[in-house]
Amino acid sequence: MTTIMHRNAKGIIAALLAFLLLACTPALAAPADAGRQAKEAKAGTNAAVVDEINEHLAVMNAEELAATLKLLRVRGLINAAYVDGTSKIDLMTGAVKGAIEAVGDPYSQYFDAHTLKEFMIEAKGVFGGVGMVLGMKDKRITVIAPIEGTPADRAGIASGDWIIAINGQTTKDMALDAAVSKIRGKEGTEVILTVGRTGQEPSDYTIVRDTIEIKTVAGKMLEGDIGYIRLTFFNENTGESFAAKLRELEGQGMKAAILDLRNNPGGILEESVKVAGQFIPRGPVVSVVTRDGSRRTSYAEPGGPRYPLVVLINGGSASASEIVAGAVQDTGAGTLVGTHSFGKGSVQNLVPLGDGTAIKLTVARYHTPKDRVIDGVGLEPDVLVVQPADARETGRDTQLERAIEVLREKL
User: Fold this and answer.
1) What are the PDZ domain coordinates in residue numbering (predicted)?
2) 40 CB-near residues (< 8 Å, 6+ apart)
3) How much is the average pLDDT of 388-409?
4) Given 344, 346, 360, 375, which residue is catalytic?
5) What pLDDT, in 10s, does the model give residues 302-354?
């Protein structure tokens, strides 16, 4: 009896889903002389939808089928009785958003057509906004790092700050992508951010948006033949640009190196592997481990080390930055100086949904060469140095000073 009911439930749900999905599909417009082709095309589309529905239903158990049927019943009740009426498409989109939110992961998101376009623009390294990378920490929208030289950086926004309100609207229970969308905007326009900081009262920052162009690599020679390279982000050109800067400094007689990853919120995994490969011995840099325990390991090429190395980290060093720092620490290729890193060590895949929308879903976590998990944990520096609160005003960088001391002891 249970098997029959289970089978019948699948049939009912399949029929309802097919009807509802097809009812939401725009009719195919066709001239009179193309009617037959249009009908055939529509029939093919309908059959494909039904086939996909059946594939999903085939792996559902009784509880999952009951939950799916409940969703359809609620949708039907809203369509039939909700006093103001609503769009069938909006209801199904809301169900998709709810499914992503139910995962409980702040980095898994639904992108409508507008937010997807903004996301892709940001990935190219040029966009309109204030210039900071946000994440979720302790259920608050938190600044992972301001981007160097941007309006947020100039205004004094700091790593670890959290956004309490945007233009007076509270961020409590606000999705991360919604907050990002509200902060971004046209160059020259203003946004008011109410910012919280540990040990201080909340403050309002009125920031004028600008075109944000991320330049990822900068470097120079310091006294004592110490090369200094600052990475602000890992985009698609970082590995190549970093190698070029390294060669430039080597040509100037560099005998030791400082890699500054402070307030670097991460970026592209492959680029971080290229950077780490300039310093660590030939071998694993990072492993990406999925739910079923399978792993994909990236290796250092060409492999080092070449000279004494210090890596500067702080609470704004996240994701790809932590991959590099973790590999350096695990292999003994250098010394980490600064403060505890952010602890963002998860991997997201962007999955298009075929209608101009997409979901970004966390599918794996990073493991260091010694199999340490970064996500939610972060990295402890080998040498703890807390930057003074007045560092911006005085211009004194005590973490950099300590890094230079560490290297001089090794030369």
Assistant:
1) 116-184
2) none
3) 89
4) 344
5) 777 678 999 999 999 999 999 999 999 999 999 999 999 999 999 888 999 98
Listed as own residue / partner, the contacts of 387-396 with beta carbons closer than 8 Å and 24 or more positions apart are 387/314, 387/339, 392/156
Give ranges for CATH 3.90.226.10 in the chain.
Answer: 215-410
Write down the catalytic residue from 161, 177, 260, 330.
330
Query: Helix (H) and strand (E) counts for the chain?
Result: 12, 19
The gap between the terminal CA atoms of the chain, to the nearest Å, is 80
Q: Determine the CATH number of domain 215-410.
A: 3.90.226.10
- CA nearest 17: which of 54, 44, 45? 54
Reading the block at residue 402, the tokens are 């300590």
Q: What is the band of 45 on the pLDDT scale with cuts at 50, 70, 90?
A: low
Task: Specify whether the CB–CB gap between 260 and 228 falls below 8 A.
Answer: yes
Task: Find the Cα–Cα–Cα–Cα dihedral 98, 99, 105, 107, rounded to 10°.
Answer: -80
Could you say which of 108, 181, 319, 346 is catalytic? 319
Do 373 and 367 contact (CB within 8 A), yes or no?
A: yes
Which of 141, 139, 129 lies closest to 195, judged by CA?
A: 141
* Known active-site residue 10: no
344 belongs to the catalytic site: yes
* pLDDT value of residue 315: 93
Based on the residue annotation, tell me whether 330 is a catalytic residue of this protein: yes
- Reported for 227-231, long-range contacts at CB under 8 A and 24+ positions apart, including other chains, are 227/252, 227/254, 227/256, 227/257, 227/258, 228/257, 228/258, 228/260, 228/400, 229/257, 229/258, 229/259, 229/260, 230/148, 230/260, 231/259, 231/260, 231/261, 231/264, 231/275, 231/321
pLDDT(39) > 70: no
* Number of other CB atoms surrounding residue 116 within 10 Å: 21
CATH 2.30.42.10 in the chain, residues? 126-212
- Written out in words, the top-level CATH class of the domain with range 126-212 is mainly beta
